[in-house]
Specification:
This protein is an all-alpha fold. Helix content is 73%, strand content 0%. The chain has 12 helices and no strands.
Amino acid sequence: MKRIIRKALTLLSVYYAYILEYRAEMIFWVLSGSLPIIFMGIWIQAAQNGRLNLTPVDFARYFLAVFIIRQFTAVWVIWDFQKEVVEGKLSPKLLQPLDPVWHHVATHVADRVARLQFTFLLILLFFILYPQAFWLPSLGKFLLFLLSVTLAFTLRFIIQYTFAMLAFWTERATALENLWLLFYLFLSGLIAPLEVFPESVRIVLMWTPFPYLVDFPASILVGLPVDLVRGFLSLVGWTLIFFFVNRWLWRMGLKQYSGMGA
C-alpha cells in the first residue's frame, strides 16, 4: 500500500508541476468554463418575466454550482490518448509497469488542484457582484456534493476514455466525443436546470447518464429536490457499465495497435 501511495504522489507531483508551467493558459481554461454564468443571466431574466418553478436567486445559485462542477469535471483524455495512439507515443508507456490511464488520471487530478485558487477568486467575485445569491450549504449537503462531483468526474472520465479506445481503429475518435458533447450540453443541466424541462422529458432523461453529470450534484448543493439514492446508484451503475466496456475495448485495441512497431 505504501508503494502504491508513493507512486500516486509522485505522479501527482510531476503532473502538478507540469500544469503550473502553463498558468496563463489555465486561467483561460477556467474562464472558458464560465458558459453557465451566461445562461444564468438568460434564465434570471426569464424567471423575472415568466412563470417558472425557480426564482431568480435559485437560478443564480444553480448556475454558480454548475460553474463549479464544470471546473472539477472537465475532461480531455480522448484528445491526449488519440494523439498517443496515432503518433505511436503509447508504445513506451506500455512497457512501464503501470496502466497508461494513470498518467491521464494524474494529469486531470493535478489540474483540479491547480484550478482551485482561480475558481475561488471567481466565486468571490460572483458573490460581490450578486450578493443576494450568497448562501452557505449545510455540512451534510456539502459533503454529498463533493461525493457527487467526484463520482460525476469519474463517470465523465470513463465515458470519454471509453470513446478514446476507438483511436485503435480510427484516427478521428474525437468525432464521437463531439457528437456526445451536443447531448451533454443540452441534457445534462448545463444550459437549463431539469426543473424547467417537461415532466415527460425528465422521466426519460433519468434513465440516461446525462442528468447525473451536472444537474444532480448542482441540485444537491443548492437544495433543489433530488432523489439521492437513485442519483448515486445511477452514477455508480453507469460508471461500472462504461468501465467494463472500456476494459473490453482496451484488450481488443491492444491486439489492433501497431504504433512504432509495437
